[in-house]
Structures are given as C-alpha cells and as structure tokens.
Amino acid sequence: PFHMPGHKRQPVFVMDPYAVDITEIDGFDNLHAPEGILKEAQERAARLYGAGRSYYLVNGSTCGILAAISAAAPFGGRILMSRNAHKSVYHAAYLRHLSVEYLNPCITQTGIQGAVPVEEVRRKLKENSDICAVLVTSPTYEGVVSDIAAISAAVHEYGIPLLVDEAHGAHFGFHPAFPQTAVRLGADAVIQSMHKVLPSLTQTALLHLNSTRVEPRSVEKYRDMFETSSPSYVLMASMEKCIRMLSEDGESL
User: Fold this and answer.
1) Are the beta carbons of 30 and 230 closer than 8 angstroms?
2) What pTM was computed for the model?
3) What residues pair up with 135 in beta bridges, in sequence order?
4) Tens digit of pLDDT for each residue in 105-135?
5) Contact assessment for residue 151 and residue 118, using Cβ atoms and an 8 Å cutoff
6) Measured between alpha carbons, how far is residue 135 from residues 9, 15, 32, 138 in Å?
7) Residues 198, 173: contact at Cβ < 8 Å?
8) How far apart are CA 217 and CA 223, in angstroms?
C-alpha cells in the first residue's frame, strides 16, 4: 500500500498484543516517571538520532507539538510559524493564546507548497522583535524539505528556539539518498511520527530536544498534560522494536 502506516500491514515484528498489553507494574517502568527500561529505551532513541534527549509519544506527533510549543512560548507570547502547519500547531497557539506571524512557503511549479525561504525567516524576525519561537514544517506532506541548517542559524541569531515538525521525516538520515534529520541540523526541538514511514504502530512518535532553549523540565510537564496517563505498552513495544532495528542498521545516520 502507498499510504501510512509505515509497516504497510506486514508482520515486520511478530508480537502478541495481548501478551504485552500491561500497565505500570514492577519491572516495566512508568513513561511519566521513567527510571528503568523506558528510560533506557528513550536514551537509545536519543543516541540513534543524535539528540540530547528523546521522548516516547503514544498520542502521536500531536502530543509532541503541543508540548514543545507550550514549553517554548510563554502564555500570550508571539510565534513565527509556517502557514502550512499541522492543525495541532494551530491548536497549541489557541490553547496558549499565542499571537501568530506566518511564514509563507514558496509555491512550486506544480502548484504545491514548497520550502520556507531562509530570507523570509530573517525578514519576519527583523520586523517582529517580540517573536519567542519559530516553527517550520519540514518535510511537508508532499515531501518538500526546507534548509533547516540555514534557518536554524538565522533563528539562533535572535537567541530563540527553532521547532521543526518533522512528522513525515522519521527516516531522514538513515540512507545517503535521504535528507539529514533536523535533529542534526541545529533545530532545538524536533517532532517525528514513527508510524508514518517506519515499521511502528499508529500513534507512535518521538520528541527530540537538542538545547536548553526549550527547557526539558517544561517539555516533560506539558507532555504529561497532553499525553494519556495510561500509555499503551503495545505501542511502546512496537517503538522499541523499531528503534532496535534502526540501531542495528542505521550506522549512516
């Protein structure tokens, strides 16, 4: 099938879901206060992608985007964001009462929205001194990638964080034919949907942090608010299987 999820309905990992559908019991850790196997699993994901910290998400990239924006932008603040952002970005702006300044992607010859020009980012930051964070969608739903390294450098000149919605790019960096992941191009927070292109179950995602411009404790606080208090071990098991597979094969990342 030419659609999500990335496992294409193939039994990549043979797993009895009922056997691993448990709760926070001794020996199986707690995603909201990880100290054991889930802490180790998230650290493994961080090493794989080259992130400072990585967080398992079982409420999809939506949860990570809500948490990252809430941590990066103060209530009532002003954010610079791609006009073609996912609805969860708009929901975060609504919940945090944020004022929004838009970045307009280029329109390609085929009529779809393309990359966000770094010149547009610089212009908007110069004209709006009260912007507290920038969010870019890269890749787009159609697969168009922006110059994240250049955008990151421009944003950091103002001492504010760059958040990248990389929901469709969890595979980036695992082969020379793919673009590099925003995690390694200077973004402060990157959100990826594992289920879109990787062999992981629907709703599984990752939130990566790479600097203190987005405070980890604040991210963890908001992630606890937006993520279910009963995270599925079935979903987390599929993430663990996927990360271990990539760790074995992803030396090119």
Assistant:
1) no
2) 0.91
3) 81, 163
4) 988 888 888 899 999 999 999 999 999 999 9
5) yes
6) 32, 37, 26, 10
7) no
8) 10
Q: Maximum CA pair distance of the chain?
A: 57
Going across the sheet that includes 162-165, the strands are 53-57, 205-209, 189-193, 162-165, 131-137, 78-82, 99-103
Closest to 183 in 3D by CA, of 151, 210, 214, 146: 210
Output 16-24 pairs: Cβ under 8 A, ≥24 positions apart. Answer: 17/234, 20/233, 20/234, 20/237, 21/232, 21/233, 21/234, 22/233, 23/230, 23/233
CB atoms within 10 A of CB 47: 13
Helix and strand totals (H; E) in the chain: 9, 7
Report the distance separating Cα 184 and Cα 148, nearest Å: 10
What tokens does 142 get?
A: 């159609």
List 136's β-bridge partners, or say none.
Answer: 164
What is the tens place of the pLDDT at every residue in 170-220?
999 998 999 999 999 999 999 999 988 898 999 999 999 999 999 999 999
Dihedral sign from CA coordinates of 73, 74, 80, 81? positive
User: Which amino acid belongs to residue 35?
Assistant: E
How far apart, in whole angstroms, are the C-alpha atoms of residue 78 and residue 177?
37
* φ/ψ of residue 158, rounded to 5: -100, 5
